[in-house]
Amino acid sequence: MNLTGQAIYQKGRKPSKVKAIRDNARDRECTLSIPGICCNDNARTVGNHVRLFSIAGGGQKPDDIFILDACDKCHAVFDSRDKWADAALGYDDVLRAFMLTLRNRRAAGLIILRGEQ
């Protein structure tokens, strides 16, 4: 359920996959960049689906618009909420990483704002 009380994904409905977005995540800087965890190796950066706030449940992935760039080490911490406290990872860190990722996608021409002046 989401904030409106309605299910996001109906049984049998698949999330939208966009190869260009998935490909754009590879070899980028890790935007999550958890201090003491991040390997700081762009070759290990992949797309990390954000599954928060009932956008998708366990075993489900949301649409590819909800991907942030994370190295494999940061990705592992992000996917295990029980590790967040030890890594001092908070929702503000996730929001920052998501915003940086969206900025990168926009710079790559994958996100276009209508009516932009």
Describe it.
This protein has one domain. The protein contains 4 helices and 2 strands; from the N terminus they run H-E-E-H-H-H. Strands 1-2 form a two-stranded antiparallel sheet.
Feature tags:
117 residues; 2 strands; two-stranded antiparallel ribbon; 4 helices
Write the layout of secondary structure elements.
Layout: H1 19-25, E1 45-49, E2 67-71, H2 72-79, H3 84-87, H4 91-107
Antiparallel strand pairs: 1-2
The 3D shape can be described as: globular
Number of strands: 2
How many angstroms separate the termini?
A: 37 Å
Low-pLDDT stretches are: none
Main β-sheet: number of strands, strand sense, barrel status? 2 strands, antiparallel
Please sum up the structure shown.
The protein is an alpha+beta fold and about 120 residues long. It has one domain.
